[in-house]
Amino acid sequence: MATVYHYPVWVRIWHAINAILFLVLIVTGISMHYANQQFNLIGFNTAVSLHNVSGIILSANYIIFLVYNRFTTNGNHYRITTSGLLSANIRQFNYYIKGIFKGEKPPYPVNHSRKFNPLQTISYVVVMYFLMFLIIISGWALIFPEVVFVKQLFGTSGIHLTAVLHFVVGYLLSIFLVVHVYLCIIPKPFGSSFRAMLSGWHTSEQG
Amino acid sequence: MKILIRSLLLTTLALLFLPSNAQNIDPAIVQENGECFICHGHEKYYYYNDWLEIDIKERMNPYYIIDSTKFYQSNHKTFRCIDCHSMDYTEFPHDRQLRMEPMYECMDCHGWDDTWAQYNFEKIDEEYQKSVHNTKHTEEFSCWMCHDPHSYKLNARSNLSITEVISYDNEICLSCHADRDKYQLISSKTNPNILYTHDWLPNQEAHFRHVRCVECHTEVQDTILVAHNILPKEKAVRNCVECHSDNSLLMASLYRYEVAERRNKLGFLNGAILSEAYVIGANSNPLLKKLSIAIFVLVLLAIGVHAFLRFRK
């Protein structure tokens, strides 16, 4: 059993806020997007207000993440090294779809220097530096539609394209959330990832 | 004599600088109407005072000024003024009794006539009779309160963009509801401020730009393009999901017409809304909507299978 302190207080607070906001944004987003007169998860007006307020807080929380990641060692875990990238990812992927069922040890366990396995690194970088950026920018553009510079593109309004982008990215992030939560139950002992996000200490059978 | 020369000069100039739309109109009509526009097309008019034997320059009542450019772009552009107004108006000074003449209304010419069948004037009239404009104001309210016969032109059926159609139509409502003087022609009440009465509406500006007043304030009818049964304010749409949903109310009137026109171009439902605006909840493509749900279910299924295989021992 190895115990590593990977989640300082700021990461845990930031992560908790992010998790709550994600849930609120997904529920209110679904409520608005799939609304009709028979199905209305949350009152439309309430959903719009909640979605906007949560989006604004999420933006502030995102800026905090960027700043901390820039100036603390946490940012090191978000660096992708190109050498051996493909083989490492294939190895990790094979573990998820084959090795895990045979009881094999994870190829890239958490240790003092490694917080994420190669697939996690790539997905967190894509999510945090690409998808989150897009959803926040498009969200602000929808709050202030007059700032959407592209008025028309291929006969479709710029606002509409922005909304489609916002929806698609939101959809991808929702799928990410589900997969992320599921993968957190994989490390042994069971529930260690969830406990780590509360205490800061990651306990691992390996490493 | 000076008046005659000035009149001839103005008529000649009017003919020379005719709005381009008037150039397809019978010149005899344009010339005849030009006699009226000499005075009614300008802020000032001139006449010779026989008693004083001097030329008089007078201000025209602003409500009697007709914009000839708008007139020759309007639906009634081929009309002579005296087609609707008394022949006696050709005399100046006009007989004071002429202001008592009854005015034609839309149905006098357009009603029960196959020529205008596609516009369904009979249904429009039937709906108008039920509307608050008629039930609360009766005689003093006429078609002309909203549709100025000197400038009205077909709008939704034109090639204008949908936002221009919306703006044009809303201007008609605002010509009374945002103008105290005109409003009080038929009401002793103070004109309610539209911005305050709609302060409950989120993104007010976006709504005003992309939704016609009649979309929420009328009973939508499938058979006519512009609903004319204006409902009492208590019955106006206030429930957001009536528009913000996949069976959006907006798809019942103007947008439905636009969709029918553009469906071939854009290829799927709600196409017209897609082209110029975004309505949360109403813009989704039904196919993509189902696909997105299907993919999500597949992800959950894959996770379920993975978890089952992992924990089966």
Walk me through the structure.
The complex is a heterodimer of chains A (207) and B (313). With 207 residues, chain A is mostly helical. Chain A is built from 6 helices and 4 strands; from the N terminus they run E-H-H-H-H-E-E-H-H-E. In chain A, strand 2 and strand 3 form a beta hairpin. In chain A, helix 1 runs antiparallel to helix 2. The longest helix of chain A is centred in the N-terminal third of the chain and has 28 residues, at 44-71. Chain A is elongated. The N and C termini of chain A lie close together (8 Å). In chain A, 19% of the residues are buried. With 313 residues, chain B is mainly alpha-helical. Chain B is 44% helix and 4% strand. Chain B contains 15 helices and 2 strands. Chain B has a two-stranded antiparallel ribbon. In chain B, a hairpin with a 4-residue loop joins strand 1 and strand 2. The longest helix of chain B has 26 residues, at 286-311. The chains are: A mainly alpha (207), B mainly alpha (313). Chain A binds chain B through residues 32-37, 40, 44-45, 48-49, 96, 100-101, 145, 155-157, 159-160, 162-163, 171, 174-175, 178-179, 182, 185-186, and chain B through 202, 206, 239-242, 244-247, 265-266, 274-278, 280-281, 283-284, 289, 292, 295-296, 299-300, 303, 306-307, 309-310.
How are the SSEs ordered, and which strands pair?
The complex is a heterodimer of chains A (207) and B (313).
Chain A: E1 2-5, H1 9-33, H2 44-71, H3 85-97, H4 118-143, E2 152-153, E3 156-157, H5 158-183, H6 192-199, E4 201-204
Antiparallel strand pairs in A: 1-4, 2-3
Helix pairs in contact in A: 1-2, 2-4, 4-5
Chain B: H1 2-16, H2 27-40, E1 44-49, E2 54-59, H3 68-71, H4 81-84, H5 106-110, H6 121-130, H7 132-135, H8 162-177, H9 180-183, H10 194-197, H11 204-210, H12 213-217, H13 254-266, H14 271-276, H15 286-311
Antiparallel strand pairs in B: 1-2
Helix pairs in contact in B: 1-2
